[in-house]
């Protein structure tokens, strides 16, 4: 297991380099430069200013030099300074946005799992029943609904008409003056709509996935065996079938690790939540190269690690893979 | 000029004279008529689409930063409600007889928010900051005309110019920076970028990135503490969300869209809680022709296109009537506006006739005019994200088609739009807008020396008489004299139609009804913000 792990980790390095190189080139290919926004269409800005800014940002250097410098800094875990007006360290900008993004994504994944796993199982067990059809329609409606539209409807309904939930933001204005329990309640009430809206689109995929896994497993011989042994249907489904049907879920969870730090610009914009999605979007719009690269690198690392993690967990959870690896040995 | 506008928080102007009269009755004008004594307290909450970038004015150019900075800092001068310059940090000022020396006499009772006294060295330092080649400020241009400055004593500041420069006074409305906190520090990484220290009516209190910026009233402000104790800028990137927040009363101020102003706020509940105001904003939308293209070389073609556009239709369709037709670069309620220029009322017959004179005929009967076998076809480009411009383009497209001109409309993301289309002059025609201010100098946009790639005369307009008028206009301080030059300037523009000036839109703010002391003026409503107040019985936020 250990040599395997070491080899996988080593392989990540060239992969990561390749990703950063491609990203670096692609974002520099996009027309416009970070200096443009500050200088163009502004009667007060001179041509010298443009040049001065380009020099300060190092944009006057050839692209490979810029990449080399960036890589050199990255090697000591320095993501550089943002090109935006404030010139703050990229890492600060990312770190202040990370907690809320991760919180919402975790809650959202938990919500998706809590709802779609039972939905998927029930749909599979009662395949083609009215329940199956109704949930199919429901989850796909959720999937197809534009999230900004749903968000606005919910905000209008719960925020304006009923007045029971706050519309946007993370805290109320007088948050500092609330009691401790009041603060917790305030936080929760601000999170309900964003988490629901960000989760609703994921329900369809996950519950359908769960359903087809379950159907697959139910058809297996060992389920037949279990039934033949005279086990109760409950035991057959929830003990023998479910465990096996859950295995591929590990892969999906592994794949959603990078998603934890990625936010959706749409719902963050609508709910006025300062998350990673908006940060990245604004970065791209302003051609804030260090910020874009910083977020991309983090995303890439997490994607690669997530994959690795999923593979490892898979091996741990599934004896077939674990033993398979030992027999194929060095391979 | 853009900067000044934001800095002064005067993103607008007059309670309309034109066209809006019949609607005005609906718009209640509260305020001093109730004759309440001003009281201290309460919080004013407004939303901003974007977070501020940098709270050092020399380094920021976005509107969110400027809105905050306008309350935290002062300039030597400012615009009052009537759009006249008046002293702010300067008690009074003198212009020498040859118009080349400006002397400012500073107030002696001003202190920075950290308690240090404000002196002329701060002004000198600010000037040096703006012209420092190592400081990437977007505002160096207005100070480049200054040859030297002097501070004979702590309360006198003198600026010398080689040639008289009329916009110079306006440039001294720029925010003055604290020398004692910035000198010999790395300006680009100054902590003041995120916690500013100014002399203004509000002190910086708190900035939560992406969430909010909080300011507290400055009790030691030299004009007396402002009445509203706290100002909160919430960052809400989506205007629909802002509007929902406004409806629940979580916001006290919002600039409405015409649709929101006209239809969505026309409810008893909204009228009970908010007052709506309307006044012409500075700035206009135009259709600019790339004069380097042979197609637009003939003035008659440009005039024909102007006749083919029904400006009132655009105003009614796009702005729901909340705007007026533009005839030149100045809005109709300013002293510099020339009402006598050729207005180009909608007249498709005249348009066809002018095109025929220019040699365009529909020879093959396909509905499109041709000349020398080439159809009269071109593309209008505009930027993504401005719905009003796109709608304007669609309406114009149909009107042009009616006179036999085939127009395509392309919408392009802003950075790409500038880089690949506008700056290299790679476009036929474009729908864009300029915002401006009370200062009429238009040198950068219309002078023939400003036609290089990346400069603002990107349509390539060259006209010797206009060059001369613009040069003279910025050398004279006398308003009457300047008006002569700029009247002629507007006449030529109307005649030549390098742009077809389309419309000036109205600013349509809604303000919570509990705020009193709002006095609409040519400068809009925000110019006297420090005099706004809430009667004690109506105060909403007591902490």
Automatic annotation (TrEMBL), chain A:
PROSITE patterns for the chain: ABC_TM1 (PS50928)
Biological process annotations from GO: transmembrane transport
Domain of life: Bacteria
Record keyword Hydrolase present: no
Pfam families in UniProt: BPD_transp_1, BPD_transp_1_N
Occurrences of domain ABC transmembrane type-1 (ranges): 98-310
Annotated TM spans: 9-30, 102-125, 137-160, 188-206, 245-271, 291-317
Protein family (similarity comment): Belongs to the binding-protein-dependent transport system permease family.
Protein's name according to its UniProt entry: ABC transporter permease
Annotated organism of origin: Pelovirga terrestris
